[in-house]
Each structure stands twice: as structure tokens, then as C-alpha cells.
Design goal:
The complex is a heterodimer. Chain A is built from five helices and no strands. Chain A is mostly helical. Chain B has helices spanning 4-11, 15-26, 29-45, 56-74, 91-98, 101-104, 108-113, 118-126, 130-140, 146-153, 157-181, 184-193. Classes of the chains: A mainly alpha, B mainly alpha. Chains A and B meet through helix 2, helix 4 and helix 5 of A and helix 1, helix 2, helix 3, helix 5 and helix 7 of B.
């Protein structure tokens, strides 16, 4: 969708191609405030691009949500704590010793 | 940070996420545990080099990722070549639209992702070429900023940006392949036709 007109003193509104080219940077919050505003103005009038932006935003958040559920083995922390104490003892340091 | 207890206090809260990152890299629970433990010991030995006031998490993850690369170099296999130019944007959006899911679901991305479990997503991450895997694991598992990824992997911001953008497309392509293999696409087509 290409906007039909805009105020001559304001930046040219984004068409679909402009908005879609910036999708990745929008997702990762890498756009300038001006670019972000132009993308959001375009999304406010374009359901096709809104659907694509929404899909990609959900994709990132859902993948992150699923991956946050990977449980660490409860014994790993104990193993590491023991390994660190063993390493400290081997190097002649006392646990809690200050530098 | 040179006192062993200070080091332990800083490290232990990071272990859950470090394990998630290691699992994303190795795709094997035992290998991930070994990798986290190896990284913890390497970091412990190098703790005097940590600059107080800088990002301990990024410093530790950098050691973990480097330890992973070190292990991989020892057992190097021929890397697959990926024609990144051929990976289209909006890959999953287009595939889910093609099977008619958009007409029958308010949230097609959630509909598809809801049927994939964490193990399958990790399998897709693991299938990414090595340089994309590390950046994408930090991005998806740790939710690191571009700056933190650049610092952890010691690569420029522009490289982080291209690895995340392309890695995301590749991940979508891999996930669609997994969804097809596991019959999830078939379930979605059936639902769309119902």
C-alpha cells in the first residue's frame, strides 16, 4: 500500500516495500526514532504489513519463550561448585580468601 | 573477583541460562553440562583477567562459546555450505499462508510454534551453520542485545546484525522442515480444511 499524499514538509510516508525492508531492524529495535515512527504510521494503515510484522514478532517471542523452559540439571550447579573448590584447593587458595 | 567465593557468587546465578546456551550449541544434555563445567573452570582460572565493572555475563559466555569452538575444532567436520541469498524473508509466514492457516487462525505464528517443543527448536538451532548458531543462541536463549553479542563473540556489530537477520531466516526454514517431518504441517492443513 502506497500512501496517496503527505504534507510537503513531513518525511515521505513509507510504502510496503519500505516497511518490509525494515522489518528485521524493527524487531531488534535497531531503527532510529524517525524510521520507527514511519514504520508504525505505515502499519496503522496497512493490514497486510501488520500481519507480517505481527507474525515475525510472535515468532521471536514464542521461540524465546520455549527456549527459556530448558531446565538445567539440578546436579550441575553442585558439580560445578565442587569442581571450583577442587580447583581452588589445588592452586593452594582457601575458599573465601581475599586477593 | 579474584577471591574464589566472589567468583562462585557471580557465576552460579548464570548457570541456568549458560546451560540453555550450551544446549543450543551442542544439542546434547551431557555435552552441554560438560561444556558449562569446562567454561566454569576456564573462567575460574582466568578470573584475575576479568575487569571489574565490565559485563561478567558476557565475559563468561565468551569463554563458553570459545570452549565450544575449541571442542569443535578438535573434531572438525566438513561444514555445510549455505546459499544465504536463497533464503527468503518471511519464510514461515509464506509457508503458513500457502497451507491456508492465515484464513483460519488469528495468530498463525503462535499456532505453529505452539505445536513445536523446545527440543525441536533446539534441533533447528543446532542445524544452523556454526557462525550463525552462536549468534542466534545468544539472541534467542540469552536475549542478548547486539552489543552484548558483539562483545561475547568478539565480532563487529554489522556482522551481528547480518548473522541474526540471516540466522532467523535459516531457523524458520529449518523449523518448517521439522514441522513437515513430524506431521505438524499435515495437522495444520487438516485444521485449515476442517
Amino acid at each position: 500500500m502506497t500512501p496517496r499524499w503527505h504534507w510537503p514538509w513531513s518525511p515521505r510516508p513509507y510504502a510496503c516495500a519500505d516497511a518490509l525492508r525494515r522489518l528485521d531492524d524493527y524487531l531488534d529495535r535497531r531503527l532510529s526514532a524517525k524510521e520507527r515512527r514511519l514504520v508504525e504510521e505505515h502499519l496503522a494503515i496497512c493490514t497486510a504489513c501488520t500481519s507480517k510484522y505481527r507474525f515475525e514478532t510472535t515468532f521471536v517471542s514464542e521461540v524465546r519463550r520455549k527456549l527459556a523452559r530448558i531446565d538445567v540439571s539440578p546436579r550441575l550447579a553442585d558439580q560445578i561448585r565442587q569442581a571450583l573448590r577442587h580447583a581452588a584447593a589445588s592452586s593452594g587458595e582457601q575458599p573465601g580468601a581475599s586477593p | 573477583m579474584t577471591a574464589p567465593t566472589d567468583f562462585e557468587t557471580a557465576l552460579l546465578p548464570l548457570l541456568d541460562r549458560a546451560y540453555g546456551l550450551a544446549y543450543g550449541l551442542t544439542h546434547d544434555r551431557a555435552d552441554a553440562e560438560d561444556l558449562v563445567q569446562e567454561a566454569a573452570l576456564l573462567a575460574f582460572k582466568a578470573r584475575a583477567q576479568f575487569q571489574p565493572g565490565t559485563n561478567f555475563k558476557a565475559w563468561f559466555y565468551r569463554i563458553l562459546v570459545n570452549a565450544f569452538y575449541g571442542q569443535r575444532r578438535k573434531a572438525r567436520r566438513q561444514g555445510e555450505t549455505v546459499d544465504l541469498e536463497s533464503v527468503p524473508a518471511l519464510y514461515l509466514y509464506d509457508r503458513t499462508a500457502e497451507i491456508g492457516l492465515h484464513a483460519h487462525s488469528d495468530d498463525p505464528a503462535a499456532e505453529l510454534l505452539g505445536r513445536l517443543d523446545a527440543e525441536q527448536i533446539v534441533a533447528a538451532l543446532e542445524a544452523l551453520p556454526e557462525e550463525y548458531r552462536a549468534a542466534c543462541s545468544l539472541y534467542f536463549v540469552q536475549e542478548f542485545s547486539y552489543e552484548e553479542i558483539a562483545q561475547t563473540l568478539d565480532i563487529p556489530l554489522g556482522t551481528v546484525r547480518s548473522r541474526i537477520h540471516r540466522g532467523r531466516r535459516l531457523l524458520q526454514q529449518r523449523l518448517w522442515g521439522i514441522a513437515q517431518e513430524r506431521g505438524i504441517v499435515k495437522q495444520l492443513v487438516t485444521k485449515a480444511l476442517a
